[in-house]
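#dry-run=false #mode=assembly
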Amino acid sequence: MIETTLFNLLKKEIPSEFEIEDFARFFQYKKLEKDEYFIRQGELCRSVAFIEKGIVLYYKIADIGQVICDFAKEGEWITQYESFVNQDLSPISIKTIEPTEILVISFDKLQQLYEEVPTVMLLARKIIEKAFFSSLSRNDELQNLRANERYIKFAQDNPELVQRIPQYYIASYLGVAPQSLSRIRKKFIY
Amino acid sequence: MIETTLFNLLKKEIPSEFEIEDFARFFQYKKLEKDEYFIRQGELCRSVAFIEKGIVLYYKIADIGQVICDFAKEGEWITQYESFVNQDLSPISIKTIEPTEILVISFDKLQQLYEEVPTVMLLARKIIEKAFFSSLSRNDELQNLRANERYIKFAQDNPELVQRIPQYYIASYLGVAPQSLSRIRKKFIY
DNA sequence: AGATTTCATTCACATTTGTGAAGAAATGAT
DNA sequence: ATCATTTCTTCACAAATGTGAATGAAATCT
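#status=ok
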């Protein structure tokens, strides 16, 4: 379990005497089936994870039913920053939609890692900033693009996800009815 | 210019020997007319400001024309975090839509302030986190609410702004045509 | 393989939203 | 006060999107 994308990435990004084995002490490797949960709506979020392989779905149950908030795939972090930071109850659930392998680090271990390798904190900030900027550009798209334009952009930016994620999830993520997305797609496939 | 909302707030929030006068050294007070710019699309953003009084508009010129990205009013910070952090060209313009008074601090002075009063950095992080979380909930609203629901929520959350901001700006912010917003409003005013 | 469930498509129709034009109302300038 | 400009409203019509039901395809289970 030592030769992971994450540890190689950390070793490369973070200038320190730390070796891959040292990083590995802080993380717990987990193999999840399809439809297993990383966190459930209403629970406390006490850890962060890196996805080695697979896809997770962020969603919540609202009055209109299930709403897809986000996706994350291999090479990305699973963060529920809002509840992680405030140690508040999570407003959303995160679950796998494929067999998925993750490396988990608890809040406490993360603090230790920060202390042992302060540069990690810089990396963490960059990850959070990236999430922030993505959120801003998602606002822009939801505000200014039509459903069909949103789909085209999503498909261009995430060609793999279009293959791996059920369409009604993508529809929900784009804020559109599944039937409408089907109608939209018909115009681009000939 | 010493008795400002900002300096009282800093004095209250930040435990230190710093007095109001000490904070004042770092900020430059500016009085802006209506329609003056804090930053223009395509320029470098080298400062942050606190609004003592007035309202600013975040907007950009896109292919569909002018698009309103955000508002900020007295008691809030003017930040263009994306370009501020990366020292990149600003993708948006920020201008006043009322006579407005602000307290400006440059990037360099902010670093100095961080060094002299480290707790300021915590405050800064909280401000950025707040912007992040607002962005997430704006995503949620744009994704899941209809135009009329978005307007109702906006009006509930910002009753003052509804009075002070032209409606076609609000329409653009909500991602709706001004005529549609007018139609929506008709149903709630009797 | 067969049965069951889940997912995607299609259709008809309702509702929402966009668009361009016209005029009313409000605001600002002289 | 008068005029000019900006903002808001209204209308008729077009386009986009939602909804519920029906069908078929694909995936999953046993």
